[in-house]
Amino acid sequence: MSSVLDTYARKNIAFKEGKGCYLFTENGDKYLDFVQGIATNILGHCHEHLVKTIQDQSKKLWHVSNAFVIPEQERLAKRLTDNTFADFVCFQNSGTEATEASIKIARKYFHKIGKPEKNRIITMKGSFHGRTLAALFAANNPKHTEGFGPKVEGFDQVPFADHEAIKKAINKNTAAIMIETIMGEGGIKVVPDFCIKGLRELCDEHNILLILDEVQCAYRTGDFFAFEKSGITPDIVPIAKGIGGGFPLGACLVTKKVSVGMTPGTHGSTFGGNPLAMVAGNAVLDIIFEKDFLNNVKKKGKYFDESLNKIKNKYP
Questions:
Q1: Does residue 28 sit within a domain?
Q2: Exposed, middle or buried by CB within 10 Å (0-12, 13-18, 19+), for 43?
Q3: Residue among 85, 91, 110, 128 flagged as catalytic
């Protein structure tokens, strides 16, 4: 009997090695990896640049408190802000932590500007924002929340991409709308660009914030972020999964305007932004920013989509 807590329905397969898009078991079997460690190994297993970068850093410094300046953290934050809407980055270890940071930042913003009553967040039914309590109840999927009561208050769910329902849900206590740009666990549903534009307009009209959860889709769609096609600017974006290339890394991107409530002591993470994670994040960006890399992602994605449709049409 395993001593590991039984929170996963594990397959009886143990992998000992990975290379590129392949995994190898202890028995020598070879698998083509379509899972990517749940959307994390976006450059494949043991990418040479990531391996060397992490190895080099591991010989110097693994961990130091965020009470001190961490150069690679500064560098990664600068690269992210230079290439996105954001002015600041808050580093975490995972997607659910990035989501929690987003919720705290949104609420703290309205508290700071003298509107503490604005603390509720509108989310979409079928969404998934993480496994911590606030993130669980933000999505409010009964399958995930059962037995974890009492309910964490502060969230109002509406049907997927239902603009009228979102409009009706907005009230004087609404602080933000939070959606997955591409709904993951809810069925790989892409929120249409016109819907995202409409949400931005609603947020501007009612003086509330737009949080776009890109934990699963950041770096993975052929654009740096999936929301970029819509042409709008969000207020807060939590990211994770692929941004570390398989190394635990999350982040919350935020504008200067919305960051005003976050001062020393309002949030923190012991391990978030540690030197090893930061060099991993920078190494991933080294590859992502190579000429034509993201364009090739789009081309391969189109080819894969067309090929799958051919199979579907051949075997309806």
A1: no
A2: buried
A3: 128
